[in-house]
Model the fold of this input.
Amino acid sequence: MFVAAGWGAGLGVVIWILDDDAQRTMEALDSFRPKLGSKVYSGDGELLGQFAIESREYVALNEIPLTLQKAFLATEDDEFYDHRGFRPLALANAAVDSLRTGNVRGASTITQQVVRNVDQTGISKDVTVQRKLKEIVYALQLERSYTKDEILEIYLNQVFLGVTAYGVKAAAAQYFSKDVWDLTLGECAMLAGLTRSPNNNNPFRSPKNAITRRNIVLLQMLENGLITQEE
Done:
């Protein structure tokens, strides 16, 4: 009887959070296309300028250095390739923290962040229990429809990294005047360190904060076996 009641309650929660915007959310994820800027060329093909409110250039995952991918995985979701969209233990810890502090935050996987960042989904930006539950359900659906590499590619092209830079290619150009595939290990770690607070850790505005975050990311990469001490 207790087991049946538990399953019934769980089903009720799923029905509650999968409201009318559920279908719209998955359609938005399926049809997602990043907002790219407009490029103006001369008659002979020379790039004269680029205009955009959000600076973004889409780049395929196989063109993003593995070191940069590892830097983001280390700081954002070191179990990304092992979980199914969310981390139960991390979620439980966040729930305990929310009961203690009153704040519902943390425990979001990269998949959940993709769901949240694709702003056509209609998921509220307010930090609430209902929003977290929606994120989990939609993340599970997303993991069934896309491969891990496809999800990571969307994330690395959509993540906000300060000023007007969305995605790693735009951020590499903005902060280092480089193509993304030319970044050093330290530069990769610095970009990954921007995710938590892009404005406070901006190397132009707060170089000390940026270096501190970079070093934290490098340490996380080392602890996760993604780089060696020598590197």
